[in-house]
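RETRY 2/3 - previous attempt timed out on the joint model. Re-submitting the same 292-residue input unchanged.
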Amino acid sequence: MRTRLKELRARHGLNQTELAKRARISRQTVSLIEREEYIPSLLIAKRFAKIFDEPIEEIFIFDEEEL
Amino acid sequence: MKYALKLLLYAAGGFIVAYTVMFTDILNQINLDSRWLNMTVFVLAIITVVLSIIGYFQLKGTAKDEDMDEDLREQYKYRKFSDLSLATHSSIILSFLAMGLGVISEMPLWFVISSLVLFCLSFAFQIFTSKLPKQLYPERNLPEISDARYADKLLAVSDDGERHVMLNGLYKAFASTSALLFMSLVILMVYSVATGNAQIIGMLLIGSILLISNAQYVLSIRNKG
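RETRY 2/3 succeeded.
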C-alpha cells in the first residue's frame, strides 16, 4: 500500500501534530502511516478522507495483487 | 518451528561460549581480576546514572521550549523519553549488580556504600521518569504509574499506531528474553559440570522464569481465538 498522506498534508499546510489532533490520533501514528509502516483502521482512514475532502482510495493506494 | 530452531541455536551458542571459556581457560589467560569486573560495572552504573539525570532535566526543559518546530519538538520528546527510560532501567540494574558484586567479593566499604547511593539515585530517577509523560503530554488522559490497572489503562488511551509499535517491541523483547534465558541455562549447566560448582539455584530460577513467562503468554492468547 502506498499513501499520499504526506503530500496532502503539505498541500493543506498542516504539520503532523496538527493533523494528528484533527484526526484524534497520535503524531506517532501519523508518522507511521506516512512512512507506510502501518495500515490505518477504516475509521482513521475515513477521518483523513473527511479532513482532506478526498475519497479514501485517493489517499491510500493499493496494488491490484494486494486486493 | 522457527521459535524452536532459534532456541536450539541459542542453546548451541550457550554451549560453545561456556565450553570455550571453561576448557580454554580464557579467564586465567587474560588474568581477569574480579576487582576489574566490579569496577567496570560500577563505572557503567555511574555513567548511566549521570545520563539519567542529564536526560531528565533536558527533557523537562524541552517540554517548555515553545520556539522549536512543533513536529520536531514532539519527535524529540518521544525519542528523548525512550533514551531516558533505557538509561534509568540500565542504571538500576547496573548499580544493583555493582552492589551485589561488591558484597560478594568483599570489596571495600566505600564501594558498597557508593553502589547503594547509585542504586537509590537510579530508583528515584526511575520514579521521576515514570511521572514525566503526564507533564510532557498534559492533554492526554494518561494513567498514574501507581494505578493497579496501569497497563490496561495505558493500552486503552493509546491509539492503534501506538499499540502496533508497543506490540512489535514487546514481542521482540519477549522472544529474545526467552532465547537468552535458555542460552544462560545451557551456560550454567556446562559451567556446573566443568567446574563442579553446581549452579542449581540459578538454573531452577531461570527454568521457572521461562516456564511462567511462556505459560503466561500462551494462556493469555489461547482464549482470544
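The longest strand of chain A covers residues 2-3. Closing ticket.
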